[in-house]
Write a structure and sequence with these properties.
Layout: H1 5-14, H2 18-27, E1 32-33, H3 34-39, H4 45-58, E2 61-66, E3 69-74, H5 76-105
Antiparallel strand pairs: 1-3, 2-3
Length: 106
């Protein structure tokens, strides 16, 4: 799958807020109800809804209706995209460091 930098930017922008990072981290433990998320923050329900809408629209989080509640979970495909991006960056940096070390030894 070909992913553009604008796709990465959308994902990273969604995580560009302390509350959303904490929510994303909380969801790493499994699916959570909005009511459980709300208990962890000193915010109103509409504010939580705004954050969840941002995370869902970015594709990082999946939301599903369960009766009167919304339940949220991490979209594993989106998480893999981010992991792949950072792995690729790390790999490039290692190659660059190796080249630099080889030049210094010469």
């Amino acid at each position: 799958m070909n992913v553009s930098y604008s796709d990465y930017a959308l994902l990273l922008k969604a995580l560009g807020d302390e509350t959303r990072i904490k929510i994303f981290h909380m969801l790493s433990q499994g699916e959570l109800c909005a009511c459980n998320l709300l208990e962890e923050f000193n915010i109103t329900q509409p504010t939580l809804s705004y954050h969840m809408k941002t995370l869902c629209e970015s594709g990082l989080v999946n939301g599903r209706k369960d009766g009167i509640w919304m339940k949220y979970s991490i979209n594993k495909d989106a998480l893999k995209l981010l992991k792949d991006l950072f792995s690729d960056i790390d790999e490039h940096m290692k190659k660059s460091d190796n080249k630099l070390n080889n030049i210094e030894r010469s």
